User: Which sequence fits this backbone?
């Protein structure tokens, strides 16, 4: 028995250009990346929905884990989602949801995701989110969006994720899952652009009142003595939540700024290259930070200076457009 929502095949799948080989940050985070590919597969342009990048912030200890807000998805595309009450075995819920033409976002252990080979697959336990769109019970196969594309897992990985041993004591918590309803989908038209513009301007109006890149630099400077006492794995996890998220956010903000500039009456292309500069700068800073974490000297203020200015200038130019 196989149920699926979309007619996609991993062998023929082509990722959206936001995940192209020419990107500075080829992946952003699991929550945003799966939606880029899901929207792409549903026939929508995810770039129009990137207005949320303009209200991103540094939360004091990490860059905010950005993704497509549920309300934005509803307003733009008619997509609705709510938490799924997982009270039965997960696989039973997946079959029912997919049969109802609903996608399911679920938290899983990346240990069992073959698309993460060389990173976490069969070598590291790490929580991540996937969007399930196909289950084949007979062949024990699962089709899912994750990171840069669409993939299928099977065999032992299917068993580990969907056929765990019986837990009579209830000691294992069920995974967090979201039901994504598509019955209200509306086709993209001229009104989609108007709604995307309004949402983007709303996010711009809610942008941080103080420079988040400057606050990020200050916290990293404070954390350097601590970071030098920890191993390389700790550094990578720290970098992911700080400079990598900042850089990936900035690159998506550049895409949205370019999208805005292509709309009639906007006409301020200068913001996009400023955001792109921040994205590239965070990549360089990550390498410098890795050396600093090994005890070498690092002038963080000098490394960050131009990017702090660029962030403010990009936002100001968008606000004036």
Assistant:
């Amino acid at each position: 028995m196989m149920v699926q929502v979309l007619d996609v095949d991993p062998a023929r799948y082509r990722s959206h250009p936001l995940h192209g080989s020419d990107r500075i940050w080829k992946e952003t985070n699991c929550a945003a990346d799966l939606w880029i590919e899901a929207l792409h597969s549903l026939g929508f342009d995810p770039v129009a929905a990137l207005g949320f990048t303009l209200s991103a912030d540094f939360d004091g200890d990490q860059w905010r884990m950005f993704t497509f807000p549920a309300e934005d998805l509803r307003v733009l595309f008619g997509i609705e989602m709510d938490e799924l009450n997982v009270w039965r075995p997960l696989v039973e819920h997946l079959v029912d949801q997919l049969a109802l033409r609903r996608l399911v976002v679920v938290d899983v252990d990346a240990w069992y995701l073959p698309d993460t080979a060389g990173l976490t697959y069969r070598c590291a336990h790490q929580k991540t989110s996937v969007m399930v769109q196909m289950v084949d019970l007979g062949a024990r196969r699962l089709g899912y969006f994750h990171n840069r594309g669409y993939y299928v897992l099977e065999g032992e990985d299917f068993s580990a994720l969907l056929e765990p041993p019986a837990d009579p004591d209830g000691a294992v918590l069920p995974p967090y899952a979201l039901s994504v309803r598509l019955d209200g989908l509306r086709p993209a038209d001229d009104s989609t652009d108007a709604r995307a513009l309004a949402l983007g301007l709303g996010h711009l109006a809610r942008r941080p009142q103080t420079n988040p890149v400057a606050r990020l630099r200050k916290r990293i400077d404070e954390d350097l003595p601590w970071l030098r006492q920890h191993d390389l794995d700790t550094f990578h996890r720290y970098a992911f939540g700080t400079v990598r998220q900042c850089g990936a956010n900035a690159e998506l903000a550049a895409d949205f700024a370019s999208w805005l500039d292509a709309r009639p009456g906007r006409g301020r292309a200068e913001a996009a290259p400023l955001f792109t500069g921040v994205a590239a700068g965070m990549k360089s800073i990550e390498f410098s930070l890795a050396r600093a974490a090994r005890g070498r000297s690092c002038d963080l203020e000098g490394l960050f200076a131009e990017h702090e200015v660029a962030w403010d200038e990009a936002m100001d130019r968008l606000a004036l457009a």
Residues 2-43+80-181 form one domain. The longest strand covers residues 127-136.
